[in-house]
């Protein structure tokens, strides 16, 4: 679960990173606030669209399991991982 959340956070921050690179290429200081004024709402929207799009894509293309889930358990003193049967 942590990996899925971190991937979505990275996707959310991609537009901000790209805009920072754009500012550097334009020889502007990306660490000053006035360079970001007016652009932040659009960057937030773009980041949310990327993150939501990734969730939707993952939901559509994720592998589906059929059958019942058997949780992790002990058999004859050894640990048997959880699986679908």
From TrEMBL:
Q: Does the keyword Transmembrane apply?
A: yes
Sorted alphabetically, the keyword list is: Membrane, Transmembrane, Transmembrane helix
Q: Which InterPro entries match?
A: DUF6111
In terms of Pfam families, this protein maps to: DUF6111 (PF19606)
Superkingdom of origin:
Bacteria
Q: Where are the transmembrane segments?
A: 6-25, 40-60
Name of the protein in its database record: Drug/metabolite transporter (DMT)-like permease
**What organism is this sequence from?**
Chelatococcus caeni
